[in-house]
Amino acid sequence: MTRDGGDAGVGLDRLVDLVSRHLGFDAVLVAEMEHDRFVLAALAGETSGLPLAVGAELPEDERAYYAAILGRAARDSAAAAARRSGSSAAPPGLRSAGFNRAVSVPLRFSDGSVYGILSGLVRTLDRRPAKLERRFMAMLAELIAGDLDEQRRRQRLKVAILDVIEHQRIEIAYQPIVDLRSGRIIGVEALSRFPEPFTRPDETFAAAEEVGLGLELERLAISTAWPVLDLLDPPLFLTINISPASLVRLARRATERPELSIDNLVVEITEHAIVEHYEELRQELAPLRERGLRVAIDDAGAGYASLQHVVELQPDFVKVDTALVRGVADDHARRVAISAFVLLSLDLGATVIAEGAETPRDLTTLGDLGVHAAQGYLLGTPTGVEEILRRLRTPHGD
Ligand code: C2E
Ligand code: CA
Ligand code: CA
Fold this sequence. Notes:
By secondary structure, the protein is α/β, with parallel strands linked by helices. The protein is built from 15 helices and 12 strands. The strands form 2 sheets. Strands 5-6-7-8-9-10-11-12 form an 8-stranded mixed β-barrel, surrounded by 6 helices. Strands 2-1-4-3 form a 4-stranded antiparallel beta sheet, sandwiched between helices. Helix 3 crosses helix 5 (131-143) and helix 6 crosses helix 7. The relative contact order is 0.08. The structure holds ligand C2E and calcium ion (2 copies). One calcium ion binds next to strand 9. Ligand C2E is lined by residues 175, 191-192, 201-202, 205, 218, 221, 241-243, 270, 298-299, 322, 355-358, 375-377, 382.
């Protein structure tokens, strides 16, 4: 077991397991250095006699032992360290637990900075670990440097995203969705904005997902955009972006709160998302759709699942992806593809919204193809809430 579980690559779990099985130690541990403390980061082998659990701080005696090994290793050349590192006597606490000898080598990141220590422990006094074992462990320690880098990257990312969530470092930009016949704003999409280095919202949500904070970050985005719902009088609607996993969770909470008014809310489900259980999603959404919640398929045409999403979820809106929209005026294939979405939507009673409309010619073509509405820099860039409300008050939204 490791402290944060599920490491990428070889990982500490695998490392201690390999060393324990192949080098015949009774137990193997990794101690992670945190300032002047050592914390048990991974453990394998016959560990029942060990007075330590993963995540626990090592006692003073052990700390001094490991610090001494690292201090000596720092003065040695890498090769000398590989030969010499480790003391054959186990640290005091482990000796009293019956582990008499230890082979310890430093674990480093690829920039050379210290991560901690890898120790193989043996009980019998007459089994003196051979030099070759030490060198082999030093080699493994070097091999795992890239994995330690990756683990450190993820940990730092997690801390940074937790900081965003805890301190609500988010702003929402609102982009108008415009009816192509009347020229009027019919709805507004909420788009998240985060501080440096999280300048790309899609990458930020993907990173949060990677470190297990996807749902929390989405919840922050939604709760920050939520108050704007009250500022938009129907038929004006607010769209929010949401992953299928968050949608299921949010749907359950919203179902328990019948007083929430959601008849001008549209949830945009990205087409990139893999929906594993359409039936579950449909069931969770059904009572909310009865209360007026509408569903949009986002980025339609950008990936392989768009038609399936559309067919399975019977959306109220189909948002055609920028990649299909840009250059539509001069591209026959794009026109055909967009026409196909228009036809399909007509059949479903859904409204087609073209995304990323950037030129007047593309916009005219979209109208000619029967696209109902569009969103794009030409019609309005994402702005703050005051600006979007000001635009809504002016007759043609401009
Ligand atoms: P999206 O949902 O497809 O959002 C549309 C993106 O296109 C926005 O990028 C918007 O600023 C941009 N855009 C609008 N008009 C034009 C145009 O005319 N040309 C071009 N080239 N782009 C245009 P943004 O705000 O950077 O968001 C990127 C993606 O991040 C979004 O793509 C969405 O997938 C994700 N995202 C943003 N906010 C949230 C959120 O609160 N929750 C979730 N789950 N995802 C979000
Ligand atoms: Ca969207
Ligand atoms: Ca989109």
